[in-house]
Amino acid sequence: MLLVNPGAREGRAPARLERALAARPELLRVAEIVNVSTRAEARAVVRALGPGAIPVAAGGDGTVNLLAGALWEEHVDRTMAVLPLGTGNAFAAPLGLGSLPRALAALDTGAERAIDLMVTTHPAAPVATVSLSAGFESRFLLGAASRRTWRRGLAVLGGLAGAALGRSTGIALATDGESLVSMGEAVYNVGLYNFPCYGFGWRMWPDADPGDGVAEAVVCRSARRYWRTLRRGLSTALPLDGDPSARRWRTARVESNGPLQIDGEVIAAGRFEVQVVRHAIRVLVPGQ
Hints:
The protein is an alpha+beta fold. The protein folds into two domains: 2-109, 3-Layer(aba) Sandwich (Rossmann fold); 128-280, Tumour Suppressor Smad4. Helix content is 30%, strand content 29%. It contains nine helices and 16 strands. It has helices at 8-11, 13-22, 25-30, 39-47, 61-73, 100-109, 136-146, 152-163, 223-232; strands spanning 2-4, 33-35, 56-59, 81-84, 111-120, 127-128, 131-135, 171-175, 178-181, 189-193, 215-220, 245-249, 251-256, 260-262, 265-267, 270-285. The protein has a six-stranded antiparallel beta sheet with strand order 6-5-16-13-8-9. The chain has a six-stranded antiparallel beta sheet with strand order 12-11-10-7-14-15. Helix 5 links the parallel strand 3 (56-59) and strand 4 (81-84). Helix 4 (39-47) crosses helix 5 and helix 7 (136-146) packs across helix 8. The longest helix has 13 residues, at 61-73.
């Protein structure tokens, strides 16, 4: 059961999926393609899965989030798969699924890998698979979305120009009962991360392990430190204080007066709890 978001990769994901399946007629004979763009649609697909059917997120991190969230909300114990047809594919790349041929091979000969989820109480997003953040990252995505044009590069540059400068207030974060950021403090970016990569396989948090039962919290108070971290990566194996500061965590409390991003999608401001649920889902990855 291939779940594809018709809006993924600026609307190009369905065509990419058709081309991939054209080269795999044996898969095309047994596959059913379903368009999903909302939580309700993804949950309906998960509820209707036939015996033995493999649900496949054919898209980017947002599509992965829809499927993983639907499996979690519907309490369906089913191994999922991923075809990386999105823009960044931060979920797929660290699992060895960054290329479409490897992801297709995993459908035939892959092995199961248990993956943690960051489960939230935010009404718009029950889970985060890769990241949850406020500050620069959410401002950037909001700016890119508001400047969507037929040239993806122009939208990205527009979002970057609108978000690259300046810090934010009105963001609070506490992890495992320890306050890391208060609402009145000016910060550049505050993030919770479950995977080591940003988009395109860029390793930002090399120590992050999506199956170890903990996630990474990173606070960058200045733009200079954020961009330095982006260039070099940041080890989060030990707690860090100062700029940046970092903690490994199991429970978190987030509050933001501005937009947030979860797995590359912008959601509304809110105050909510987050918990790392170990091995909440299973994913087919390339076999050894």
